[in-house]
């Protein structure tokens, strides 16, 4: 198993690091006889809650809010212009935290 921190892939040479660890992981898979479904290359993220949200089906962005306008919208640290008050129904109650 190869584990790489996500910050290593965000460096200027991140693409080269990714290519190198991908090659190492492929070699490890072929020489170890690991099953095809076994994940050899793993990325260790710094914000586990974001990964968990994606695992649970969260879709980033506000398109779903625009397509299905809510009655109540909780913006928790997300008041930086992602969606404007004008895009919401007049009866939508917005909570900013």
Automatic annotation (TrEMBL):
Residues 1-97 form the Molybdopterin oxidoreductase domain. One of its GO terms (molecular function) is oxidoreductase activity. One of its GO terms (cellular component) is membrane. Its cofactor is [4Fe-4S] cluster; [2Fe-2S] cluster. This is Molybdopterin oxidoreductase domain-containing protein.
